[in-house]
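Risk register update: the risk that structure generation would not scale has been downgraded. Supporting records follow, first protein first.
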Amino acid sequence: MKKNKFISSNSTVSKRPSKDGLSLTGLTNKVKASLKKHRLITKNETILVALSGGPDSVALLYLLNSLKKEFALKIAAAHLNHMLRGKESKKDMLFCQTLSARLNIPFFSESINIKKLNNNASIEETARKARQDFLFKVTDNIKAAKIALGHTKDDQAETVLMRLLRGSGLYGLSAILPKRKIRQYTLIRPLLEIPKKEILTYLKKRKISYRLDRTNKKDIYFRNRIRRNLIPKLKKYNKNIVSILANTAQTVALDYEYIKSEAEKSLAKIHKANSKSQISLKTDKILRLHPAVRRMVLRLAIQKITGNLRRLSFKHIQELDDLIDARKEKSIVDLPHNISAIKTPSTIKIYRRKQL
């Protein structure tokens, strides 16, 4: 992992509004409001910005840097070179390094050949995991309080559609949250309520350059097809579809958080943690729960063993429901992450299978 520090250069910002009504300080105020509304930061924290070089992360870096005095923040930037686009990937890293130098922001980078990683997951999933691990490592090294990600309102809308088309419950439809904790790490998304067009306007008016990933213009990834094909068609039915989907995600997130809090209380009463790799749920008590709470209890129990809920689908939860309600004793349901559930005379035991 490389760290580089450089001398800053000064720049001035115009406060005149643009033709589309967005002033250069207007976006800063929106981000500031979001920081306060969702309690994303507190004063005197170190914030690590995940800097890809694209417009969203570049805007995020500038915006947080402009607020660092007001919030007494320390800002650092981190970039992972996935080495997926040859010389272009290296140019992205050098761009981020130069940008951080210009703003006098500590910069950390690492290069990982994603294609050579021995992993059964997709390239997208492997790259996401590698990036997350890298950011967590930098966070530990510099003792950062939060990791700031540049997701926008458009990203939120795309994620809702992706999960809806793949099949999802409340957790999936709540999509991207403004603040999320993964183990001891806190991820924040200050731009989540900002439309992409406002980000681009901000960068254009300030004459801030950024990098563009050419693969975003190709339909090789599911998200790209949603962004380039489906959303433009939906806008013909409702021009505000991006805001509607983002607002839906926000509403669902609130409902999800309430059901989750109730499920956590219930889980504490009905489960027995036999070990880190096994949890038993009392069948008679889980049957008394409202179906929504029951399903959440099952998800939380699985999460306690696996650490995450990726690849756990609606169909898996349905099978667990059927195991509880209708199947005979000793029936087994196999789940992702090498997990299984078996019905005993008085419990549903969720456990990690022994690997051969």
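Supporting record for the second protein:
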Amino acid sequence: MADGSYALGTHPAERRRLERQHAIWREETLAAWHRAGFTAGQRLLDLGCGPGFASLDLATLVGPGGRVLAVDRSPAYLDHLRWEAAERRLPQLEVLELDLATDDGATLPDRGGWDGAWCRWVCLFLPRLDPLLAGIAAALRPGGRLVVHDYVRWDTFSLHPSGGGVARFVERTIAHWRSEGGDPDVAGRLPAQLEARGLRLLQARSLMACGAGQDPKALWLQDFLEAYPPRLAQAGFWTAEDQRALEADLAQAARHQAFWVTPALVEQIWERPLP
């Protein structure tokens, strides 16, 4: 990881990119929380919260009678979130610095006391899922629910038509993540692992999207295509020739009719069953 916490760092430009990302997916996020029954007065976890854009929405949702604990391993992002919570007068929002990939991730506070947990785009980056999943299972009260948004097929990320530059980027990104212990298809592994920890799958749905060049989710993909190649190059997975091929694809898409397809994102809602 670039700063020991996030692949693209925690600098202001990356924070702004993550803010745009949250805004683009916010409608789907709020709908998922509604389907899970997240509501005012509840105690909710935001696991792998990053700069905390979802945490702020959760804190607004639960209101002053609830509690949100935002968990992340980046001190810079947590400092930013503390400042935002104070500015917005959200005392119900607390933060906790914790590495969810280590054994500490299995020791979330207030065991059995949480009404719900939210986890988006975290599992795919964890070399070890056991600490996080064990921590979630122990943290939820009977009847408590977990909402997960993560990828089941990252290789569906594509541009049509394409000269191959985007496809090369997708292939190299997958290889890079796997080399660091990640799994860009991790959602497919979660059912067996969460069932083994006593949770029950209530709902699952696809959030995969397709759009023309100025569609918000198409712009989200293009945003990532701008931000991530330098990290790939630093890790030895990207060359100048690769970058030229990618830029040729983007130029072609800007001049002619084309559409984008997102990675196959899946929503899962799980419950810790009542006795």
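The chain has a mean pLDDT of 94. On this basis the risk owner (M.S.) recommends closing the item.
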